[in-house]
């Protein structure tokens, strides 16, 4: 019987994993989803106590200080220190507990700023990251270094996945913290339902931050959860693997706003505010390695996934993180 501990089990990806596991009902795996209330993983003793309690044989390590462009820009030191501590505590405690496998989470936004495209798994360490999120990026890059070091010294199967931008139910909608999709969903909800109550909706204007031109790949959290479970069960290399939609599925930030407007049936106008930062223009990632192993995997259609995410937000407005 495998005992799988999910750190960060209460977040966007953790909740998606829980949902997929609920559907799959695996007979030979028991899953435990831990949030920060179970243990503050910045604290080594608390991390050890969590592992002593759960006794995992496998770990999916998601817990991290996570945030969008503006949150990162203002808090690089905290992103660096908190994530370094969390990652070191989880990996070393997994080692002490003789865990068979650990799958940790990197991100496509930690890749070098100046690079050729598409980016792939071999390029993680090839140059400095974008200055906006260097704290988060260097802490994440070190997970890959640690995985190799544990493998070299002890032969451990500690590996990592590199998701592109993620969205879905249970996202973080807090304005100061949120990523682009949950940020827009909350702002559009407010514009339609709260702001300027006397104005007809058709006269309301939704502001897209920046030029709307940057390109991004977005993966639906439920798709990512399925792929991460596949990695846990079937992927046996220490080298990271990109978990992203295909390159042709890249969309502009403006197209994201259009999809969200469609899901809300918003009747007003979309306008770009070019005085706001754009961040990296693009960070197109290649999922060729994933495709070589899982050629037939079908990702949920972007508009459909956005619609489900907006519906979740509206139905769970009171308990959503905002
Ligand atoms: P969320 O912000 O939704 O969730 C973060 C999770 O980490 C929560 O369960 C939170 O617990 C937990 N956590 C945070 N700090 C601590 C701590 N000190 N001790 C214990 N637990 C802690 O993140 P996501 O689900 O979006 O991200 C999951 C992983 O995916 C992360 O490693 C992230 O870096 C990575 N990633 C995310 C992307 C995205 O677009 N969201 C893109 C690419 C990678 P609680 O809520 O209980 O406080």
TrEMBL record:
Catalyzes the two-step NADP-dependent conversion of GDP-4-dehydro-6-deoxy-D-mannose to GDP-fucose, involving an epimerase and a reductase reaction. This is GDP-L-fucose synthase. It comes from Drosophila willistoni. The keyword Oxidoreductase applies. Its EC number is 1.1.1.271. The keyword Lyase does not apply. GO terms for molecular function: GDP-L-fucose synthase activity; isomerase activity. Residues 4-239 form the NAD-dependent epimerase/dehydratase domain. Keywords: Isomerase, NADP, Oxidoreductase. Pathway: Nucleotide-sugar biosynthesis; GDP-L-fucose biosynthesis via de novo pathway; GDP-L-fucose from GDP-alpha-D-mannose: step 2/2. Belongs to the NAD(P)-dependent epimerase/dehydratase family. Fucose synthase subfamily. CDD domains: GDP_FS_SDR_e. InterPro entries: Epimerase_deHydtase (IPR001509), GDP_fucose/colitose_synth (IPR028614), NAD(P)-bd_dom_sf (IPR036291). GO terms for biological process: 'de novo' GDP-L-fucose biosynthetic process.
């Amino acid at each position: 019987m495998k005992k799988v501990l999910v750190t960060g089990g209460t977040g966007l990806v953790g909740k998606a994993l829980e949902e997929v596991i609920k559907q799959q009902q695996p007979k030979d795996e028991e899953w435990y989803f831990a949030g920060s209330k179970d243990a503050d993983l910045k604290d080594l003793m608390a991390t050890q106590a969590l592992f002593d309690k759960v006794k995992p044989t496998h770990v999916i390590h998601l817990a991290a200080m996570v945030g969008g462009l503006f949150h990162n820009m203002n808090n690089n030191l905290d992103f660096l220190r908190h994530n370094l501590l969390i990652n070191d505590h989880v990996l070393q405690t997994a080692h002490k507990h003789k865990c068979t496998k650990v799958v940790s989470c990197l991100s496509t936004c930690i890749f070098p700023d100046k690079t050729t495209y598409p980016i792939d798994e071999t390029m993680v360490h090839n140059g400095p990251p974008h200055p906006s999120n260097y704290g988060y990026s260097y802490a994440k890059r070190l997970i890959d270094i640690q995985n190799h070091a544990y493998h070299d010294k002890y032969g451990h199967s500690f590996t990592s996945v590199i998701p592109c931008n993620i969205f879905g139910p249970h996202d973080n909608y807090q304005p100061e913290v949120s990523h682009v999709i949950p940020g827009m969903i909350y702002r559009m909800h407010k514009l339609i339902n709260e702001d300027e109550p006397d104005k007809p909706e058709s006269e309301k204007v939704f502001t897209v931050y920046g030029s709307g031109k940057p390109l991004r790949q977005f993966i639906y959290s439920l798709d990512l959860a399925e792929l991460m479970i596949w990695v846990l069960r079937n992927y046996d290399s220490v080298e990271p693997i990109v978990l992203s939609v295909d390159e042709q599925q890249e969309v502009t930030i403006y197209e994201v706003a259009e999809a969200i407007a469609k899901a809300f049936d918003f009747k007003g106008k979309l306008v770009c505010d070019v005085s706001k930062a754009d961040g990296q223009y693009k960070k197109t990632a290649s999922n060729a390695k994933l495709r070589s192993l899982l050629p037939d995997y079908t990702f949920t259609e972007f508009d459909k996934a956005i619609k489900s995410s907006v519906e979740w937000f509206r139905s769970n407005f009171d308990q959503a993180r905002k």
